[in-house]
Sequence to fold (495 residues):
Amino acid sequence: MRVGDDAGWTAVWHSRIGLRLAASFGALLLLVVVALILCAHAFQSIGRAEREVQAFERARHAADRASLLMREQYIHQAHTLIVFDDTHLDHYRDVVAVASQAIDELRAALATPEDAALVDELEAHRAANHKTFEELTVPAVLRGDRAEAVRLHEDMEKSVVAFSRTVRQLHDRNDARATEARVEMERAWSRAQMAALACLAAALVLGAVMAYLLTRTVVARVAVLRAGAERIGAGDLEHRIRLDARDELGELARAFDTMAEALARREEELVRAQRLASMGQVAAGIAHELNNPLGVILGYVKLLRRRGEWDDDALGVIEQEATLASETVAAMLDLARPLSLKLAEVDLGAILRESVERLSQVERVQGVDVKVVSTAPVIAWADEARLRQVVANLLTNAAEAAAPSGHVEASVHTTGDEVELTVDDDGAGFPEADRRKVTEPFFTTKSHGAGLGLSIVRTLVDAHQGDLGFERSPLGGARVWVRLPAHAASRERLE
Fold:
């Protein structure tokens, strides 16, 4: 492999966490496979040794059975000599057949062919014993020659002793082989245990190395990523993670930094757009609110021109409306920041009557019958200028809804700890689906207007900790009611 290829593989190795993790887990898997192979080989050796031990045990049992039958053959021969007649020969010959069969079974049960010569010796000893008894001892018994029979018995006994000696030799061989097989089995178990322990130790070492690498290359970087993401999520769009890594986590960190830069630019654009929208909303609100006092002023100026004479009352109204216009400008500017109320005892009934009188000079609602139902003083603890804005907006909206020749009724009264202003009209009313939206800025159902009147009313009523509601009016149109804290409760709730 060329040097350039080595450098390329090194770069790929350090730039891919997945490759490193796959290689580490592959090494662990390889250790497991090696351990399984070694254990399987050890188990095969153990199984083979166990089968050899079982074969040696079977051969030993077959040899013991052949030895036992050889002794039984000899016992029947001795019995014939004791009774010294041929009455027991039939039983003897049955035992001889079984003893011969036992030699054949021993030959079949041999674990190794090396022991076949010993089995041949056993068969020769058994056959010689039987031949001596059948061909020599039995005729001597039938002749009544006891001395010859005793001498032949000693020869037969030598055959039995030689048979037993050969069986012991066969046992010694099988026992040695069985012992060797057991030793090999124990060695196989030891090899399996050592292999398993070695693989386990290697797996532990490899696991420790993997844990170290993961902690160093993954966990620590993930912690940096998490801390950076939390700061960015908390609004610190100027923060940059700047993770110095060429792997997937480094790519993710750079993606976070790119996202933060994009979000910062987007936030700047949104703030700029919101500022422009707020400026437009304030400007539209100011224009909307100035329409009412300017309409009154224009109406009274036209009245003075028609009369052609000095009228202090008319000039007083003009002065008040101009003051209201100035205060309206200040109030609309205040909507962009928390309201500051100038609380005092205010006669809501008087404000309502004056607002109705001034509304009659507004040209666009002339012809609408606007009347105050109740005339009793209703004292509230409120900001008079702001309260005049509320009343003027509600009356203007009702009159415009009832125009050109409709009816508007307004009333004030005290209920417990609250004062209530109610304005009814016989116009089209608010559709049920629009009642939740009528106080939103720029929402209007009229063909003209900026849609800020009820939004300003909502802001001012909320500043007084009051309530604003909309219902179906008995006149057929809309009913708007405002509830404000009465004087006794206002000091606790507003001051």
Summary: The chain has a mean pLDDT of 78. Residues 146-233 form the longest helix (88 residues). Residues 3-219 form one domain.
